[in-house]
Amino acid sequence: MTRGAATESVCPVSRLAAFAVTAVLAACSGTTPLVKHGSAAKIQRQPGGFTLTEHVHVGADVRAEFGDAVKTLDAHRYSQGISQLRKVTHKAPNLVAARVDLGMAYARVGKLKKAQTNLKRAVALDPRQVVAYNELGMVLRREGHFHQARASYEKALAIAPNFYYSRLNLAILCDLYLADRKCALENYLAYQKIVPGDKHVAGWIRELRTRSEH
Questions:
Q1: What is the three-class DSSP state of 112?
Q2: Domain count, the chain
Q3: Residue 170 falls within a domain, yes or no?
Q4: What is the CA radius of gyration of the chain?
Q5: Residue 106: pLDDT band by 50, 70, 90 thresholds?
Q6: In terms of CB atoms within 10 Å, which of 56, 98, 102, 125 comes out highest?
Q7: pLDDT the model gives residue 29
Q8: Eight-state DSSP code of residue 26
Q9: Residue at 54 is within a domain
Q10: What is the Cα–Cα distance from 204 to 199, expressed in whole angstroms?
Q11: Which residues contact 161 (CB under 8 A, 6 or more apart)?
């Protein structure tokens, strides 16, 4: 398995497999939030990934439309899902979860500028939105803005150091795009402590150490 854009780490989820987060508009289970900040969205670690939980006051129509959009994206009908999410964000412009999903949907179809706009809007609404920072980092990396991508991953990790998706993405970025071996090794090792069973990363660490010896 080679590293690169294909291996950048997005959070696997149960309902929205192609995207980085399951965004819901109600309370989740009683797991401990990774991020809790006032009434802002919270990121909770669940088996197999993370769930973004946002407590907001929205009408039943918005809740239903958001749920339909999630199902559409889950079926990989991205253009239709984007259209549905745009309607949701028009009705509820401050709904962070919808902004995050819309940004990821645009990234999925290669519309990186629109992806960036929506992800930046998400972090403007909630400066502790680690999922949006992670996704924004991937978009910036794809656009060739490597140092900006690094800054975005680092913002996520400053908020939630155990958010291992950003940890791995930062390691890959430093390794392959910034030629910063120290940064790469530090973040691979930090990721390995959280996800010790990842054999690919164990191999990359050995490879990086071998390269560093020459």
A1: helix
A2: 1
A3: no
A4: 17
A5: very high
A6: 98
A7: 30
A8: S
A9: yes
A10: 9
A11: 167, 190
pLDDT tens digits along 30-45: 333 344 333 455 666 6
pTM of the model: 0.81
Average pLDDT estimate for 150-176? 94
Amino acid identity of residue 194, one-letter, is I
The rounded distance, in Å, linking the Cα atoms of 195 and 72 is: 31
Q: Tell me, what DSSP letter sits at residue 8?
A: -
In a 3-state reduction of DSSP, which class is residue 22? strand
The residue ranges of DSSP E strands in 7-63, in sequence order, are 22-24, 33-35, 42-46, 49-53
> Environment class of residue 190 by beta-carbon count within 10 Å: exposed (0-12), middle (13-18) or buried (19+)?
middle
Residue 16: both structure tokens together = 């929205």
Q: Could you tell me the two tokens for 169? A: 């993405």
**Tokens (6 digits) for 23:** 């965004």
Of 12, 17, 44, which Cα lies nearest the Cα of 28?
44
Q: Can you name the residues that pair with 164 across neighbouring β-strands?
A: none
152 in the Ramachandran plot: left (φ > 0), alpha (ψ -120 to 50) or beta?
A: alpha
Confirm whether 43 is domain-assigned: yes
Query: What is the domain range of residue 144?
Result: 5-160
Q: How far is residue 147's CA from residue 135's CA, in Å, rounded to a whole number?
A: 15
- State the pLDDT confidence band at 212, using cuts at 50, 70 and 90: confident
- Residue 199 domain-assigned? no
